[in-house]
Amino acid sequence: MRQHGPELDAAMHREARVFAAQLRTPESKEAMRAFAERRAPDFSAFE
Q1: How buried is residue 13: exposed, middle or buried, by Cβ count under 10 Å (0-12/13-18/19+)?
Q2: Is 41 exposed, middle or buried (0-12, 13-18, 19+ CB in 10 A)?
Q3: Phi-psi region for residue 41, left (φ > 0), alpha (ψ -120 to 50) or beta?
Q4: d(CA 27, CA 33)
Q5: Is-contact 26 46, C-beta < 8 A?
Q6: Given this model, what pLDDT does residue 37 score?
Q7: Which residues of the chain have pLDDT under 50?
Q8: CB of 42 within 8 A of CB of 30?
Q9: Burial track 22-35 (b if 16+ CB lie within 10 A, e otherwise)
Q10: pLDDT for residue 38
């Protein structure tokens, strides 16, 4: 298994935190709900 340097590890952890935060936004929730309901997402409320 390849070892990563501490800078890369820190960047990957930051990216994971930001990505997780984005999954909790109303826009993301609408996208996931629309996907589960097999419909197009309606982002008009977020503009």
Answers
A1: exposed
A2: middle
A3: beta
A4: 10
A5: yes
A6: 98
A7: none
A8: yes
A9: eeeeeeeeeeeeee
A10: 98
3 state DSSP class of 4: coil
- Give the pLDDT confidence score for residue 1 in this predicted structure: 54
Distance CA 37, CA 31 (A): 10
**Residue pointed to by tokens 């996931």:** 32
Cα separation, 41 vs 32, in Å, equals 8
Name the residue among 45, 1, 4 with its Cα closest to residue 25: 45
What is residue 40's three-state secondary structure? coil
Tokens of 21: 């935060």
- The C-alpha torsion from 36 through 42 and 45 to 47, rounded to 10°, is 120
CB 41 within 8 A of CB 34: yes
